[in-house]
Amino acid sequence: MTFVDEVKNAVTPRAALLVIGVLGLQLLFIASYIGALHKPKPTDVAFGVVAPQQMSQQLVSRLDGLPGGPLDPRTVSGEAEAREQIMNRDIDGALIVSPEGRTDTLLVASGGGTVLSSALERILTQVEGSQQRTVRTVDVAPASAEDFDGLSSFYLVIGWCVGGYLCASILAISAGTKPANRQRALIRIAVMALYAVAGGIGGAIIIGPILGALPGSVWGLAGLGALVVFSVGMITLALEALTGIVGIGLAVLIIVIAGNPSAGGAFPLPMLPDFWRAIGPALPPGAGTWVARSIAYFRGNAVTGPLLVLSAWAVVGTALTLLLSMRRGAGRDDGSAGTAPSAGGSTAV
Fold first, then answer.
1. Which of 129, 140, 176, 338 is the most exposed place for a label (fewest CB within 10 A)?
2. Smallest Cα–Cα separation from 130: which of 102, 91, 98?
3. What DSSP state is assigned to residue 139?
């Protein structure tokens, strides 16, 4: 047998295409992570200004005209309103101008990301210094001392996403590459749901009572975890049912390559480039990270939209999995098609 024949036997055309696909994912991974995270800078950060009426609009205009456009300032009626808007996650910080002295107050929320709160402090210190004023910083929603840089919520969600993706991948390839009928699809969905509940509770207990890394409701985080795991798992199952083993790569593309760097974890959304800032809230890692931080530091506020995003992924994934399994299993109600015996002679799920 010639060397060329050996190569053909060792690397089939299908394997070659899969290797090329993996290379593409690898390069996209590098481009996405470095593109999103190599040069973080605040842009259009929602920012409140509380100042005497005669200088309020002038100050807003000055902040709005800063080089690079780091702030998106707007007038707020008073300090109490500014605090409430920060806790509702409508704004990321606020400047309270003293009508008498020359020391103003900067309100930040490091629970939403210490990198962003530090950037706001740096920007406002420079602005105030140029006007011969000083600023003192008050953290309205401080990150836990055990939550370095506010990253614990991000890593928690990433762990849930990885679990959902891996569990779905195992279920998808355990008996071939596509579900043969509706019965098998229903079993996989049920297993995915049970796994999601276990993963959600386990992650919440580890990050809360065991490690003390994240405050907030343990059961609230557990519910979020179950939804994150299930949504990621179901979209993975749906993509695999639609395209075969390629679907697992597509899930990696959505969740890992696009979702992780745009999640606002290492750097909050206002510090990411426009593309990643736009897609982050629509993907499970970004939606999950936002909700986890809201539960931990913002009294559970502003979670409706992200929870709807996660629910949409779960519903679409479940519906597609069932629909594709019914189409593929039409005329084969005995469920025998597409199964593969395990080593012990039993049929895998």
1. 129
2. 102
3. E
The CA angle 251-346-243, to the nearest 5 degrees, is 25
Q: 3-class DSSP state for residue 47?
A: strand
Entry field: residues in the chain: 349
- What does the alpha-carbon distance between residue 305 and residue 308 come to, in Å, rounded to a whole number? 5
CA distance 96 to 318: 49
Answer whether residue 345 shows pLDDT above 50: no
Q: Please give the backbone phi and psi of residue 94, each rounded to the nearest 5 degrees, phi first.
A: -155, 150
Q: Which tokens is 329 given?
A: 């299993």
The C-alpha atoms of residue 181 and residue 179 are separated, in whole angstroms, by 6
Tens digit of pLDDT for each residue in 7-18?
Answer: 666 667 877 888
* Confidence tier at 275 by pLDDT (50, 70, 90): very high
Confidence of residue 331 (pLDDT cuts 50, 70, 90): very low
User: What is the pTM assigned to this prediction?
Assistant: 0.89
Q: Quick check: 141 and 109 in contact, CB under 8 A?
A: yes
Contact yes or no for 91/120 (Cβ under 8 A): no
Q: Are 220 and 153 in contact (CB under 8 A)?
A: no
**Spatial separation of the C-alpha atoms in residues 283 and 226, rounded to whole Å:** 16
Give the 3-state secondary structure of residue 28: helix
For residue 229, the surrounding DSSP H or E stretch is helix 218-243
